[in-house]
Write a structure and sequence with these properties.
With 494 residues, this protein is of the alpha/beta class. Among the domains are: 39 residues, no CATH class; 246 residues, no CATH class. 37% of the residues lie in helices and 18% in strands. It contains 16 helices and 19 strands. The strands form four sheets. Strands 1, 4, 5, 6, 7, 10, 11, 12, 13, 14, 15, 16 and 19 form a 13-stranded mixed beta sheet that branches. A two-stranded antiparallel ribbon has the order 2-3. A two-stranded antiparallel sheet has the order 8-9. Helix 5 packs parallel to helix 8. The longest helix is centred in the N-terminal third of the chain and has 30 residues. It is globular and about 65 Å long. The C terminus is likely disordered. InterPro entries: F-box_dom, LRR_dom_sf.
């Protein structure tokens, strides 16, 4: 009978380490060589279960080497077998960002920079550093263009995916600088492999969108266009790599970087016409072949690019979304980020032919939808929907009460999230805008979670809201208190 940790078999030590944090596992491994050998698996799982890369030769090649050759433990298991979630950053190096390159030292406070500028010799060094960084930026820009034009990106990523047998989640996310206020362990808040070396080479972190738009600036418009083109390329290359690698366990695909495929896509890879994305990378034939890889997909998230004209949102065709809805028959959770795009054809695509016959969760975020479109969605999937989330949605309807009645009629609804839903309605020729803010917004940031099950001795929450509905329309600043455990207030106003 085992009496000490050292005497426990490796399987039990592995089970114990499952409940420990990363630092605890590292500290345990530092105690002795025997425990170090027995904890290799959990060490690898905790550190590499979620891995983030970007589309550079250095980052992609590192993933290949890690997945197919790096081993651990006495049994020489591949590290690649530990990766379950592969996150891909949409970082890119458009020529328009060359102006951001300077010779200033990294991580210096303003007073240090000021003193640095006062030094005449240091200014010469800055010119030298700036020249080196511009060369590095040009090299990375040329490298990404070569990857795209020759479809080497697909080849490298497909080779890596073929060695990641356990991957069941792939996310494509915007490039961003880690935020100290976000949970440290979140993969979305980490730098991709090779990013720190890139920063050392060019002097800044590459991005994938414009943080502050200047609609009057043609330079900003050109940069935004370049970012959108690169985002579409990275998404298409990832899809093609998934198809080529033949992975069979993919359950979640998150495309969180705004993109668009509103362009001519070749019928097959043999087409030689010049296009932004080569036919070898993506074509209609690739999408059809993806049907097999996506047959196991349970969660699908799509974020479409914003389309502005003179600072105002405009419609941009979303007919291409059907390429995804047609090949994901087993999706149970669908999230759609409209990003203020006024085109709503995507909703009819979701309904058409019952695109997701097993849909249980529907999330609509950051965009407009009419009462009729929402009603068509809810009616089509009424037999399966259990969770609905509306976040920063503009709902065009005649009466909010009708929406509540429609939601109330769903037989299987278990959870309802309403976060900053604005509805636009007209009464007696006057247009009203009514905002549903987050409950108790001043005290916490949680959405309203609604359980339609009747509480003992109390009315159903939506029924109470329905009874107060007409008064909400006439007095937009009315506060409606919903008496269900726990007590939650919905603050309404302009």
């Amino acid at each position: 009978m085992a009496t000490t940790v050292l005497s426990l078999p490796e399987e039990l030590v592995d089970s114990v380490c499952q409940s420990l944090g990363k630092r605890d596992v590292v500290n345990l491994r530092a105690t002795c060589r025997e425990l170090k050998e027995k904890t290799y698996h959990q060490f690898a799982v905790k550190h590499f279960r979620e891995t983030k890369i970007m589309f550079t030769v250095d980052s992609l090649q590192s993933l290949i080497d890690f997945a197919t050759s790096a081993t651990f433990g006495a049994n020489k298991k591949l590290f690649g077998s530990c990766i379950r979630h592969l996150c891909i950053s949409a970082a890119s190096f458009p020529s328009q960002t060359l102006d951001k390159v300077n010779g200033l030292p990294l991580d210096k406070e303003k007073d240090d920079v000021y003193r640095f500028w006062k030094d005449a010799d240091a200014e010469k060094d800055m010119q030298r550093v700036k020249k080196q960084r511009r060369k590095a930026h040009a090299r990375l820009m040329h490298e990404q263009r070569t990857l795209r034009k020759q479809s080497k990106d697909v080849q490298l990523l497909a080779t890596a995916l073929s060695g990641l047998a356990a991957v069941d989640t792939i996310s494509i996310v915007p490039a961003q600088i880690p935020d100290a206020h976000i949970e440290y362990d979140s993969i979305y808040n980490k730098l991709p492999w090779g990013m720190e070396r890139v920063r050392q080479a060019i002097g800044f972190y590459p991005e994938s969108d414009i943080k502050t738009r200047s609609y009057w600036s043609s330079e900003a418009g050109n940069l935004e266009k370049a970012y959108h083109e690169n985002a579409a390329w990275i998404v298409c290359a990832t899809l093609s790599a998934i198809e080529r690698s033949g992975i069979k366990k993919l359950k979640t695909l998150e495309i969180l970087v705004p993109f668009s495929l509103d362009r001519n896509i070749p019928k097959n890879p043999a087409v030689t016409n010049k296009t932004l994305i080569p036919s070898r990378t993506i074509s209609d034939a690739h999408f059809e072949s993806l049907r097999h890889s996506f047959s196991t997909l349970k969660t699908l998230t799509i974020s479409v690019e914003e389309h502005y004209s003179r600072g105002q949102p405009r419609a941009k065709s979303l007919k291409w979304v059907h390429r995804f809805t047609d090949i994901c028959p087993n999706v149970e959770k669908f999230s759609f980020y409209a990003n203020n795009n006024e085109a709503t054809s995507v909703y009819s695509d979701i309904v058409k032919g019952l695109a997701f016959p097993h849909l249980r969760s529907l999330a609509l975020l950051r965009g407009p939808i009419t009462y009729e479109e929402l009603g068509q969605l809810l009616t089509t999937y009424s037999s399966t929907l259990e969770h609905i989330s509306l976040e920063k949605v503009t709902l065009r309807t005649k009466d909010w009460v009708q929406v509540l009645q429609m939601l109330k009629a769903l037989p299987h609804l278990k959870l309802l999230e309403l976060g900053k839903v604005m509805y636009v309605t007209q009464r007696e020729g006057i247009t009203y805008y009514w905002n549903t803010e987050r409950p108790l917004a001043a005290r916490n940031s949680y959405s309203l979670w609604y359980d339609p099950g009747a509480q003992p001795g109390q009315k159903d929450r939506l029924q109470i809201t329905h009874e107060a509905g007409p008064e909400m329309v006439t007095r937009l600043d009315k506060q409606i208190w919903l008496q269900t455990p726990p007590e939650i207030a919905i603050e309404t106003g302009w």
